[in-house]
Amino acid sequence: MTNLPPSDRQSSEETTLGFDEFIAILVAFAAIGGILLWSFSRRDAGWNFNILRSPSPSPTIKTQPSLPSPSPTSQVQPNADSQLDAAPLPPDKIIPEPVPTPGLILPPVPVAPINSQPKPAPFFTTKNLEPSIKSSPLPLVTPAEQKSIIPPPIAFNDVPTNFWAVRFINALSARSIIKGFPDYTFRPNQPINRAEFAAILQKAFDTELSKNSLPFKDVSAQYWATPAIDRAVGTGFLQGYPDKTFQPEQNISRVQVLVALVSGLNLQQPAKASLVLSIYKDAKSIPKYAAGKVAAATANGLVITDANQQFLAPNQEATRAEVAAMVHQALVRLGRLDNISSENIVRRQSPP
After folding, report:
1. Are 61 and 97 within 8 A, CB to CB?
2. Residues 296-346 pLDDT 10s
C-alpha cells in the first residue's frame, strides 16, 4: 500500500465540491439552457443563424421608394459578433415581393393629413358692384278675357238660308239648345208640344228653382221629359192645369209660350197693358189671364211673327221656328246672346 504524499492529499481535498458550489453550477447551466431555449423560440422573429453561417449569397429584393411595403412586425437583426453557439436552423422561405414594371409606376399622390382642415374658398361680395346694364321693369300684362268657342250650327236640310228664322235657329243649334231629327231636318213649321217646349227651356235657362215641382197624374217617373217638366215647373216657366194634369202631348199655343217666358224671366208688366196691346188688331182674342204678360213680352221684344205684325194670333199653335225665335229673344233680354236685327220682331209703338 502506497502512501500518498501530503501534497496529493491536500489537492484532493481542495478539488472536492461543496454543496454551495454545486448549486451555483446548476444555476449557471439552467441560465445557459434558458438562453438557448429563448433563442430557439425566436426563430420566426428573425434569429436566423443559418444566414450568418451560410456563405452563399442571398437574393436581394428591390423595393421602390415610392411604394414602400410595410412589414407587419418589426424584424430584429442578429448581432454578427454574438458568441452564442446555436444549432444550424433550416433556411426560411423567402417570398419575393412583386416589383412593378417601370411603365406602371404611379407618382406619389399627396394625401392630406387626417386632422387637417380644408381651406375656405375665397368669398366674393357684390355689395359694391353695379350692373353694367340696368334692366327696366317689365310691364304687367293683363291676360285677355278668354272668349268662348261656339261650334258651328247644325246644317238642317229643310231650313234654307233665306228662311225668316234661320239666324235664330242657327244661334240656338250651335249651343245645343235645339236639335233636329235623325234625318237632319228641323221641321220649322211643325207644331211643338208642351213636353218638347219644357225640354228646350231646360237647356236654354239655368234659373234656380223657385218652388218644388208638382206631381202630375199624367206624367210618370219613366216619361222621357219628366226631369225637364219638373225643372220648368220648379223655375216658374210652366204650370199645370187645375185637374193636376200637365198634358205633355198637347201642342202649345203662341200665347202660352209668351206667358211662360215672361213668367220665367219675371218681367214686369207695363202699367198700361191695353195701350201696348192696341197694336194688334186681334187683341180681343188674347185671354184675360194673359193680357198683362203678353204686353210685357211685346214691350221687351219677345214677340216674333212670320206674317203681318198687326195680328198676334195668340191661340194659334206655335211652330218650332217661332219657339226658337222667342227663346232667342228671351236670352237676348238676359244678356246671354247678341241681338239680331230682324223685321219680324214686333216693336211697341208707345211707352209702357
Report:
1. yes
2. 999 999 999 887 888 999 999 999 999 999 999 999 999 999 999 999 999
Buried/exposed code over 225-261 (b: 16+ C-beta within 10 A; e: otherwise): bbebbbbbbbbbbbebeeeeebbbeebbbbbbbbbbb
- Residues forming a β-bridge with 304: 345
Residue 300 CB coordination number (10 Å): 20
Helix (H, G, I), strand (E, B) or coil at 196: helix
Residue 86, φ and ψ in degrees, nearest 5: -115, 155
Q: Name the burial class of residue 313, with classes exposed (0-12), middle (13-18) and buried (19+) by CB atoms within 10 angstroms of its CB.
A: middle
Which amino acid belongs to residue 114? I
Would you state the cell numbers that stand for residue 347, as one nine-digit string? 216693336
Q: At what angle do helices 291-299 and 254-265 cross, to 10 degrees?
A: 70
d(CA 9, CA 152): 157
pTM for the complete prediction?
0.58
245: three-class secondary structure by DSSP: coil
Q: Which residue has the cell 235657329?
A: 169
Instruction: Check: CB of residue 67 under 8 Å from CB of residue 98.
Output: no
